[in-house]
Specification:
The chain is of the alpha/beta class and about 270 residues long. The chain has twelve helices and seven strands. It has a domain of about 190 residues: Alpha-Beta Barrel (TIM Barrel), CATH 3.20.20. Strands 1, 2, 3, 5 and 6 form a five-stranded parallel beta sheet that branches. It has a two-stranded parallel sheet with strand order 4-7. Helix 3 packs parallel to helix 10 and helix 6 runs parallel beside helix 7. It is globular, with a radius of gyration of 18 Å. The N terminus is likely disordered. Bound molecules: zinc ion. The site of zinc ion has 5 residues, from loops.
Length: about 270
């Protein structure tokens, strides 16, 4: 991907921040007075795909040839789970392409708002053998919602996921990794956090994202990334290549952790060993 393209994306982002009122498309029960700084950024990114991109869109459609991913026993093999939050977005397709090339599987913690916008991409995630899970409707801090709002949020995301990918979520990652007892109860699912956080959402830097993931990776780790940034999309093939060379197998969270319990919180494979 040429540098001019990323420059152009930056420009588009600035324009979209100024021009696109996003909250008008949210349903009433998902409206909020609070604006989370991280989601604010994500919303801006969402607008990238709504803007005309004529000459800048890279063809992501053709699928590279690679063998089917194989079953892995994480008890004896070096496993790691790459997870992608806040999508699906247009960058998800590029990430899927890179995963396919390396025979890698991953887990996508989708926002309901993004499932509504990209049901086709969500379906593709599942069709390609990856795991799709919930990450709330619109990335609000769930501990500030009422029990009814919480229930609506979980139900709506489940419905959107079922419509898009013909399956309901079986695990959950709370926005910002924040939760309380009420959120745990309302989720009624295992909660999956992470053990490696390269802060790709903060740096938006391909090299830095690559460097942090590769230096902090360890067997059994769950890595949190975001499939809404071009920098992350382009770091992924490099991460896959480097870790594969070290003998890692890329598995879904369910493959890494095995059977999970509702109400439990998991950050890595260490949380299920004992
Ligand atoms: Zn998130």
């Amino acid at each position: 991907m040429a540098a001019w393209f990323r420059g152009a994306m930056g420009l588009t982002l600035s324009v979209s921040l100024l021009t696109a009122p996003f909250s008008s498309s949210l349903p009433t029960n998902a409206q909020t007075k609070q604006i989370d700084p991280v989601f604010e950024v994500s919303v801006a990114q969402l607008h990238l795909r709504l803007m005309p991109q004529e000459e800048t869109v890279e063809p992501e459609t053709e699928m590279p040839q690679q063998a089917e991913p194989q079953k892995v026993d994480c008890e004896i093999e070096k496993c790691i789970a790459l997870t992608f939050d806040d999508g699906p977005s247009e960058y998800t397709l590029g990430i899927l392409k890179s995963l396919h090339k390396q025979g890698a599987r991953a887990t996508f913690f989708a926002l309901g708002i993004q499932l509504r916008a990209h049901p086709d991409i969500a379906r593709e995630v599942v069709l390609q053998g990856h795991e799709l899970a919930g990450h709330s409707y619109s990335h609000r801090k769930l501990q500030f919602l009422s029990p009814t709002e919480l229930e609506n949020d979980f139900n709506y995301v489940a419905k959107l996921m079922e419509q898009a990918a013909s399956q309901r979520p079986t695990m959950f990652r709370p926005p910002f990794g924040e939760y309380d007892q009420q959120v745990i109860r309302a989720a009624g699912m295992p909660m999956v956090l992470w053990s490696v956080d390269p802060k790709d959402w903060l740096t938006r830097d391909e090299d830095e994202t690559y460097r942090r993931v590769v230096s902090e990776a360890e067997p059994g780790a769950i890595v949190v990334l975001h499939d809404i940034y071009p920098s992350t999309r382009y770091a992924v093939p490099r991460i896959l290549k480097a870790l594969k060379k070290r003998g890692y197998h890329f598995v879904t969270v369910s493959e890494l952790l095995g059977e999970m319990q509702s109400g439990e919180i998991y950050k890595s494979r260490n949380d299920v060993k004992n």
